[in-house]
Write a structure and sequence with these properties.
- The chain has a single domain, classed as Luciferase-like domain (TIM Barrel), CATH 3.20.20.
- The chain has an eight-stranded parallel barrel, surrounded by six helices.
- The chain is of the alpha/beta class and about 290 residues long.
- It is built from twelve helices and ten strands.
- Strand 7, helix 6 and strand 8 form a beta-alpha-beta unit.
- The longest helix is centred in the middle third of the chain and has 18 residues.
Length: about 290
Protein backbone atom coordinates (compact mmCIF):
# COMPACT_ATOMS: atom_id res chain seq x y z
CA UNK A 1 0.00 0.00 0.00
CA UNK A 2 1.68 3.20 -1.18
CA UNK A 3 -0.12 5.83 0.91
CA UNK A 4 -3.00 6.39 3.29
CA UNK A 5 -5.61 7.27 0.69
CA UNK A 6 -9.22 6.12 0.69
CA UNK A 7 -11.77 5.79 -2.07
CA UNK A 8 -15.53 6.35 -1.78
CA UNK A 9 -17.89 4.21 -3.84
CA UNK A 10 -21.26 5.91 -4.10
CA UNK A 11 -24.04 3.38 -4.74
CA UNK A 12 -25.77 5.69 -7.22
CA UNK A 13 -22.53 5.73 -9.25
CA UNK A 14 -21.09 2.25 -8.71
CA UNK A 15 -23.79 -0.47 -8.78
CA UNK A 16 -23.56 -3.46 -6.48
CA UNK A 17 -22.35 -5.75 -9.25
CA UNK A 18 -19.15 -3.67 -9.44
CA UNK A 19 -18.29 -3.69 -5.73
CA UNK A 20 -16.46 -7.03 -5.72
CA UNK A 21 -14.45 -6.51 -8.95
CA UNK A 22 -13.54 -2.98 -7.86
CA UNK A 23 -12.61 -4.07 -4.33
CA UNK A 24 -10.31 -6.75 -5.70
CA UNK A 25 -8.25 -3.96 -7.32
CA UNK A 26 -7.80 -1.87 -4.17
CA UNK A 27 -5.41 -3.80 -1.89
CA UNK A 28 -2.18 -2.56 -3.45
CA UNK A 29 -3.16 1.11 -3.66
CA UNK A 30 -5.88 2.29 -1.28
CA UNK A 31 -5.96 2.04 2.50
CA UNK A 32 -9.74 2.20 2.84
CA UNK A 33 -12.99 2.09 0.90
CA UNK A 34 -15.95 4.18 2.06
CA UNK A 35 -19.62 3.61 1.28
CA UNK A 36 -21.79 6.75 1.55
CA UNK A 37 -25.37 6.15 2.69
CA UNK A 38 -27.17 7.73 -0.25
CA UNK A 39 -29.94 5.23 -0.99
CA UNK A 40 -32.66 3.92 1.30
CA UNK A 41 -32.61 0.67 -0.68
CA UNK A 42 -28.89 -0.15 -0.31
CA UNK A 43 -27.31 -0.80 3.09
CA UNK A 44 -23.71 0.48 3.38
CA UNK A 45 -23.01 -2.26 5.93
CA UNK A 46 -23.82 -4.88 3.29
CA UNK A 47 -21.47 -3.15 0.84
CA UNK A 48 -18.75 -3.12 3.50
CA UNK A 49 -19.22 -6.86 3.95
CA UNK A 50 -18.83 -7.45 0.20
CA UNK A 51 -15.69 -5.35 0.06
CA UNK A 52 -14.09 -6.85 3.17
CA UNK A 53 -14.64 -10.33 1.77
CA UNK A 54 -12.95 -9.34 -1.52
CA UNK A 55 -9.88 -7.71 0.07
CA UNK A 56 -7.10 -8.67 2.46
CA UNK A 57 -5.73 -5.33 3.64
CA UNK A 58 -8.21 -2.56 2.87
CA UNK A 59 -10.42 -1.16 5.61
CA UNK A 60 -14.11 -0.73 4.76
CA UNK A 61 -16.16 2.10 6.24
CA UNK A 62 -19.69 3.42 6.29
CA UNK A 63 -19.55 7.01 5.19
CA UNK A 64 -21.88 7.70 6.98
CA UNK A 65 -24.81 6.06 8.74
CA UNK A 66 -27.35 8.39 10.36
CA UNK A 67 -26.95 7.19 13.92
CA UNK A 68 -30.27 8.56 15.27
CA UNK A 69 -32.05 6.31 12.77
CA UNK A 70 -30.25 3.18 14.00
CA UNK A 71 -30.93 0.81 16.88
CA UNK A 72 -27.65 0.97 18.86
CA UNK A 73 -27.74 -2.64 20.05
CA UNK A 74 -28.44 -4.06 16.58
CA UNK A 75 -25.88 -1.79 14.94
CA UNK A 76 -23.30 -2.79 17.56
CA UNK A 77 -23.90 -6.45 16.75
CA UNK A 78 -23.46 -5.91 13.02
CA UNK A 79 -20.34 -3.77 13.53
CA UNK A 80 -18.93 -6.39 15.89
CA UNK A 81 -19.51 -9.15 13.32
CA UNK A 82 -17.87 -7.17 10.50
CA UNK A 83 -14.86 -6.39 12.70
CA UNK A 84 -14.34 -9.93 13.88
CA UNK A 85 -14.80 -11.51 10.45
CA UNK A 86 -12.34 -9.11 8.78
CA UNK A 87 -9.54 -8.95 11.33
CA UNK A 88 -10.66 -5.55 12.63
CA UNK A 89 -10.77 -3.85 9.21
CA UNK A 90 -14.20 -2.27 9.65
CA UNK A 91 -14.73 1.46 10.38
CA UNK A 92 -18.10 2.82 11.48
CA UNK A 93 -18.76 6.31 10.13
CA UNK A 94 -21.78 7.98 11.73
CA UNK A 95 -23.58 11.30 11.48
CA UNK A 96 -26.52 13.21 12.90
CA UNK A 97 -28.87 12.98 9.93
CA UNK A 98 -31.12 16.03 9.48
CA UNK A 99 -30.59 17.30 13.04
CA UNK A 100 -28.40 20.38 13.46
CA UNK A 101 -26.86 22.46 16.21
CA UNK A 102 -25.60 21.60 19.67
CA UNK A 103 -28.59 19.33 20.33
CA UNK A 104 -27.57 17.16 17.38
CA UNK A 105 -23.95 17.06 18.58
CA UNK A 106 -25.03 16.01 22.08
CA UNK A 107 -27.35 13.34 20.72
CA UNK A 108 -24.60 11.87 18.52
CA UNK A 109 -22.22 11.72 21.49
CA UNK A 110 -24.85 10.05 23.70
CA UNK A 111 -25.77 7.50 21.02
CA UNK A 112 -22.09 6.73 20.42
CA UNK A 113 -21.64 5.95 24.12
CA UNK A 114 -24.65 3.62 24.01
CA UNK A 115 -23.29 1.98 20.88
CA UNK A 116 -19.90 1.34 22.46
CA UNK A 117 -21.53 0.00 25.62
CA UNK A 118 -23.30 -2.59 23.44
CA UNK A 119 -20.13 -3.73 21.64
CA UNK A 120 -18.48 -7.00 22.63
CA UNK A 121 -15.49 -6.92 20.31
CA UNK A 122 -12.08 -5.99 21.72
CA UNK A 123 -10.94 -3.68 20.22
CA UNK A 124 -14.27 -2.22 19.03
CA UNK A 125 -14.67 -0.85 15.50
CA UNK A 126 -13.26 2.69 15.18
CA UNK A 127 -15.99 5.32 15.02
CA UNK A 128 -15.72 8.44 12.82
CA UNK A 129 -18.03 11.44 13.15
CA UNK A 130 -19.17 13.20 9.99
CA UNK A 131 -18.11 16.80 10.66
CA UNK A 132 -18.45 20.12 8.86
CA UNK A 133 -17.94 22.78 11.50
CA UNK A 134 -15.80 23.22 14.60
CA UNK A 135 -18.44 21.99 17.08
CA UNK A 136 -18.69 18.56 15.51
CA UNK A 137 -14.94 18.37 14.97
CA UNK A 138 -14.47 19.15 18.67
CA UNK A 139 -16.98 16.42 19.58
CA UNK A 140 -15.13 13.96 17.37
CA UNK A 141 -11.76 14.79 18.94
CA UNK A 142 -13.24 14.21 22.39
CA UNK A 143 -15.51 11.21 21.77
CA UNK A 144 -14.63 9.38 18.54
CA UNK A 145 -11.68 7.79 16.78
CA UNK A 146 -11.82 10.01 13.70
CA UNK A 147 -13.56 12.86 11.90
CA UNK A 148 -14.81 12.71 8.32
CA UNK A 149 -14.93 16.04 6.46
CA UNK A 150 -16.63 16.53 3.11
CA UNK A 151 -16.39 18.78 0.04
CA UNK A 152 -14.11 21.40 1.56
CA UNK A 153 -10.76 22.96 0.74
CA UNK A 154 -7.48 21.99 2.45
CA UNK A 155 -7.40 25.45 4.01
CA UNK A 156 -10.86 24.99 5.54
CA UNK A 157 -9.96 21.48 6.76
CA UNK A 158 -6.87 22.86 8.46
CA UNK A 159 -8.86 25.66 10.05
CA UNK A 160 -11.52 23.49 11.68
CA UNK A 161 -9.14 20.77 12.86
CA UNK A 162 -6.04 22.65 13.99
CA UNK A 163 -7.88 24.57 16.71
CA UNK A 164 -8.66 21.26 18.43
CA UNK A 165 -5.28 19.60 17.85
CA UNK A 166 -4.49 19.71 21.56
CA UNK A 167 -7.46 17.37 22.18
CA UNK A 168 -6.28 14.87 19.60
CA UNK A 169 -5.59 11.45 21.06
CA UNK A 170 -3.10 8.90 19.76
CA UNK A 171 -4.58 7.08 16.79
CA UNK A 172 -7.17 9.75 16.00
CA UNK A 173 -7.52 10.24 12.24
CA UNK A 174 -8.94 13.01 10.10
CA UNK A 175 -10.40 11.89 6.76
CA UNK A 176 -11.88 14.08 4.04
CA UNK A 177 -13.92 13.32 0.95
CA UNK A 178 -12.30 14.81 -2.16
CA UNK A 179 -14.92 14.81 -4.91
CA UNK A 180 -13.72 14.31 -8.48
CA UNK A 181 -15.89 14.19 -11.59
CA UNK A 182 -15.14 11.99 -14.60
CA UNK A 183 -16.67 11.47 -18.01
CA UNK A 184 -15.47 10.75 -21.52
CA UNK A 185 -17.35 13.95 -22.38
CA UNK A 186 -15.43 16.92 -20.95
CA UNK A 187 -18.53 19.12 -20.84
CA UNK A 188 -20.47 16.45 -18.97
CA UNK A 189 -17.77 16.15 -16.30
CA UNK A 190 -17.89 19.93 -15.79
CA UNK A 191 -21.69 19.90 -15.60
CA UNK A 192 -21.55 17.19 -12.94
CA UNK A 193 -19.16 19.27 -10.84
CA UNK A 194 -21.30 22.39 -11.14
CA UNK A 195 -24.51 20.49 -10.35
CA UNK A 196 -22.96 19.09 -7.17
CA UNK A 197 -21.82 22.49 -5.91
CA UNK A 198 -25.27 23.96 -6.60
CA UNK A 199 -26.99 21.05 -4.87
CA UNK A 200 -24.84 21.24 -1.75
CA UNK A 201 -25.16 25.02 -1.63
CA UNK A 202 -28.92 24.52 -1.22
CA UNK A 203 -28.26 22.80 2.13
CA UNK A 204 -27.94 25.40 4.91
CA UNK A 205 -24.99 23.76 6.64
CA UNK A 206 -23.01 23.52 3.40
CA UNK A 207 -24.00 27.02 2.30
CA UNK A 208 -22.52 28.27 5.56
CA UNK A 209 -19.34 26.30 4.94
CA UNK A 210 -19.06 27.58 1.35
CA UNK A 211 -19.47 31.14 2.65
CA UNK A 212 -16.62 30.53 5.08
CA UNK A 213 -14.49 29.31 2.17
CA UNK A 214 -15.34 32.39 0.09
CA UNK A 215 -16.87 30.56 -2.89
CA UNK A 216 -20.52 31.63 -2.59
CA UNK A 217 -20.24 34.19 -5.41
CA UNK A 218 -18.70 31.59 -7.69
CA UNK A 219 -21.58 29.20 -6.98
CA UNK A 220 -24.07 32.01 -7.63
CA UNK A 221 -22.36 32.50 -10.99
CA UNK A 222 -22.84 28.77 -11.68
CA UNK A 223 -26.56 29.18 -11.02
CA UNK A 224 -27.00 32.16 -13.34
CA UNK A 225 -24.87 30.88 -16.23
CA UNK A 226 -26.74 29.22 -19.08
CA UNK A 227 -23.67 27.10 -19.82
CA UNK A 228 -20.72 26.86 -17.43
CA UNK A 229 -17.42 26.95 -19.31
CA UNK A 230 -13.93 26.09 -18.15
CA UNK A 231 -13.41 29.78 -17.37
CA UNK A 232 -16.09 29.65 -14.67
CA UNK A 233 -14.09 27.09 -12.66
CA UNK A 234 -12.03 29.33 -10.40
CA UNK A 235 -8.85 28.46 -8.51
CA UNK A 236 -10.89 28.40 -5.29
CA UNK A 237 -13.11 25.69 -6.76
CA UNK A 238 -10.10 23.70 -7.94
CA UNK A 239 -8.80 23.66 -4.37
CA UNK A 240 -11.88 21.63 -3.48
CA UNK A 241 -12.82 19.58 -6.53
CA UNK A 242 -11.89 18.93 -10.17
CA UNK A 243 -13.45 17.65 -13.38
CA UNK A 244 -11.50 15.05 -15.38
CA UNK A 245 -8.26 15.71 -13.49
CA UNK A 246 -4.94 14.27 -14.63
CA UNK A 247 -2.83 12.00 -12.46
CA UNK A 248 -0.55 14.93 -11.60
CA UNK A 249 -3.49 17.11 -10.59
CA UNK A 250 -4.99 14.40 -8.38
CA UNK A 251 -1.71 13.67 -6.60
CA UNK A 252 -1.03 17.38 -6.03
CA UNK A 253 -4.52 17.92 -4.62
CA UNK A 254 -4.22 14.95 -2.25
CA UNK A 255 -0.85 16.23 -1.08
CA UNK A 256 -2.35 19.63 -0.28
CA UNK A 257 -4.90 17.91 1.94
CA UNK A 258 -2.15 15.96 3.70
CA UNK A 259 -0.19 19.15 4.28
CA UNK A 260 -3.36 20.64 5.80
CA UNK A 261 -3.49 17.88 8.42
CA UNK A 262 -5.85 15.43 6.71
CA UNK A 263 -4.51 11.96 7.53
CA UNK A 264 -6.69 10.15 4.99
CA UNK A 265 -7.82 12.05 1.90
CA UNK A 266 -10.62 10.00 0.33
CA UNK A 267 -10.99 10.15 -3.45
CA UNK A 268 -14.71 10.36 -4.14
CA UNK A 269 -15.28 9.79 -7.88
CA UNK A 270 -18.51 10.70 -9.63
CA UNK A 271 -18.46 8.92 -12.98
CA UNK A 272 -20.72 9.16 -16.02
CA UNK A 273 -20.40 6.20 -18.36
CA UNK A 274 -20.69 2.46 -18.70
CA UNK A 275 -19.75 -0.08 -16.03
CA UNK A 276 -16.65 -0.93 -18.06
CA UNK A 277 -15.63 2.74 -18.07
CA UNK A 278 -16.19 2.98 -14.31
CA UNK A 279 -14.16 -0.13 -13.58
CA UNK A 280 -11.32 1.05 -15.81
CA UNK A 281 -11.37 4.46 -14.12
CA UNK A 282 -10.87 2.85 -10.70
CA UNK A 283 -8.03 0.77 -12.11
CA UNK A 284 -6.46 3.99 -13.41
CA UNK A 285 -6.81 5.63 -10.00
CA UNK A 286 -5.15 2.62 -8.41
CA UNK A 287 -2.21 2.88 -10.81
CA UNK A 288 -1.91 6.65 -10.19
CA UNK A 289 -1.19 6.05 -6.52
Amino acid sequence: MKADVGIALRSTVFPQNLIVPISSELDASFSSVWFPAVSAHIDPLDLCALSLDATKRVNAATGVLRLPEQDPARLAGRADALSKSSGNRFILGVGTGPLRGQTAVNQLVDLTKKLRASCHNIPPAPIYFAALGPKMVKAAFENADGALLNFCSPRYASGVTSRHASRKRDGFRVACYVKLFFSEDEDEARRMLVKEFIHYDSLPQYHKMFEAMGISKTIDAFKSAQEVTEGHITEEILEISMDNPTQKEVLELLERFREAGVDTPVVYPYVAGSDDYKLQLVKNLCSWL
